Amino acid sequence: MSFRGFVSLVRYKEKSTSTIIMDKTLRIRSVKHLAWTLGTSADALIALAQDVSIYYRSFDREVKGKPRTLVESTEPLKRLQRRILDDVLTRLSSFPASFGAVKSRTIKDNASVHAASRFIAKLDIRAFYPSVHSTRVYRFFISQECSPDVARLLTVLTTKDHSLPLGISTSPALADQIVRPIDIRIGAIASRAGLKYTRYVDDITLSGSFPLQRFAHTVTKVLNQNGFKVKKSKLVFYGPDDDPCERVVTGVAIKDGHVTAPTDYVKALEEELRYVASQSRRAVVEDNVLPREHYRGKIAYIRWLDPPVGDRLLKLYRRVKWRHLEWMIRQQ
């Protein structure tokens, strides 16, 4: 959508704008103020917004084991979006229960919140970024005491096809701030029930001392009321008597009250390393041997979660004759 077209759409919807309460506000009252904040000129911002669609490209990539269509912005829009993130959005505080768009919080921190709980429920929001419509983005900037012109301009520069695009640097932070009122509502309900609540982007985790089926239904209802849907196929419940005893939350295993690396992930990598080690002693190498950086990255992840297990895998990695293996691959 062009900048002029979005101006018309938003002016039509401004009367129904609801207020989103935040503890900090951006308070950018003019396009000149915005341009100064981003280190550019007002004319450059407006010109870019008028032709914003030409600065995007789409591509397919595997995300969480599934093929996804991602969007990438190109220069100069990509650089400007990074400035919006670094110079504008990072000025806002994050909700304590949100872990997905905060630099100092990780998936390990998210899982640790629930490590000591007897019961855990996991919910996954369907089509999270596409569900954040451009009018919600506009209302967010208005709630941040930005002038209408600034709110419209920032919305055009951070959305594509009327929603937040998956793959753009500003999307996680914007979604995190826009969903914050929902986090506050669910967090308050959970607190009153004596439960723990966290959200890592589109992954919601609840935990406590009693079964959580009914409470998960309440959370689903709250999300539905706010325009989000839960993937029923990814609704998971863990209890103290369930098999296996290992629970996995945002890719991190919880076992005996502690966070660790998922057993299946460790076993698969161990098998890969033993296979690669055997290949490195052969005269002919099969095609399915990956670069050493692939295995080092996985080992580093496991060492971060569970150092002793990671060190054991590192010993296997060092048994591989990498120079000989890589030389043979180059010869084939």
What would a concise description of this structure say?
With 332 residues, the chain is an alpha+beta fold. The protein is built from 13 helices and 10 strands.
E-strand count: 10
Mean pLDDT: 90
In angstroms, what separates the terminal alpha carbons? Answer: 50 Å
| Estimated structural class | alpha+beta
Instruction: Summarize the amount of helix as a percent range.
Output: 40-55%
- Write down the overall geometry: flat
Q: What's the main sheet like?
A: 5 strands, antiparallel
Poorly predicted runs: 11-22
Strand percent estimate: 15-25%
DSSP helical segment count: 13
Reading the helices and strands in chain order gives HHHEEHHEHHHEEHEEEEEHHHH
Description:
- The protein is α+β, with helices and mostly antiparallel strands and 332 residues long.
- It is built from 13 helices and ten strands.
- The strands form three sheets. Strands 3, 4, 5, 6 and 7 form a five-stranded antiparallel β-sheet that branches. Strands 8-9-10 form a three-stranded antiparallel β-sheet, with helices on one face.
- A hairpin with a 2-residue loop joins strand 8 (247-249) and strand 9.
Topology of helices and strands:
Blueprint: H1 3-13, H2 31-38, H3 42-50, E1 56-63, E2 66-73, H4 77-87, H5 107-113, E3 119-126, H6 134-143, H7 148-158, H8 171-192, E4 196-200, E5 203-208, H9 213-225, E6 229-230, E7 236-238, E8 247-249, E9 252-255, E10 258-260, H10 263-279, H11 292-305, H12 307-318, H13 322-331
Throw out a few tags for this protein.
single chain, alpha+beta, 13 helices, 3-stranded antiparallel sheet
